[in-house]
């Protein structure tokens, strides 16, 4: 159970860092403002994202937005919490992945419930801001790192199955399947 509480501490820390960083952006920048950090590559900007990833659904009907961006994510958080508990004795990176997803989802849900949008502020681009990757935040970064960990787990399971079939042992991979 120590791992579970350690991951809860990691989640709480990431949610706090996410919220504090978004609060700093709202306090110190005006909406739409961009401050260059690395010329031609990276800026800190105040962006309001009323949609999902890459602004998907931002202009959708209000009912759609409530279901897709508030109701379903809360249900999803419950499922991710279940997966975290289920995989707590699996390799650490797998339970860490679920903790990171949960921290990121909660961080963005706090924004959606309190503001009606998500505050994004990390803006990467090439040469000028017109050629930019969509702005994102700490919560989005948590989810992205978690996706990478889940991809690693997927390939680890494939490798284990291949090795088991080559040795004639059909034992299951020690990683719990989600």
Major sheet attributes: 4 strands, antiparallel
* Helix-strand makeup class: alpha+beta
What is the domain tally? Answer: 1
User: Mean of the pLDDT scores?
Assistant: 89
Strand order of the largest sheet: 1-2-3-4
Low-pLDDT sequence parts: none
Order of helices and strands: HEEHHEEH
Q: What is the rounded Rg?
A: 19 Å
Number of helices: 4
Helix content: 55-70%
Sheet-strand content, in percent, reads 15-25%
Tell me the number of strands: 4
Distance between the termini: 19 Å
The rough form would be described as globular
Please characterize this protein's 3D structure.
The chain has helices spanning 2-28, 62-86, 92-115, 138-167, and strands at 34-38, 42-49, 118-126, 128-132. It is globular and about 60 Å long. It starts with a helix and ends in an 11-residue tail after the last helix. Strands 1-2-3-4 form a 4-stranded antiparallel beta sheet. Helix 1 (2-28) runs parallel beside helix 3 (92-115), helix 2 (62-86) packs antiparallel against helix 3 (92-115) and helix 3 packs antiparallel against helix 4 (138-167). It has one domain. It is built from 4 helices and 4 strands, in the order H-E-E-H-H-E-E-H. By secondary structure, it is α+β, with helices and mostly antiparallel strands.
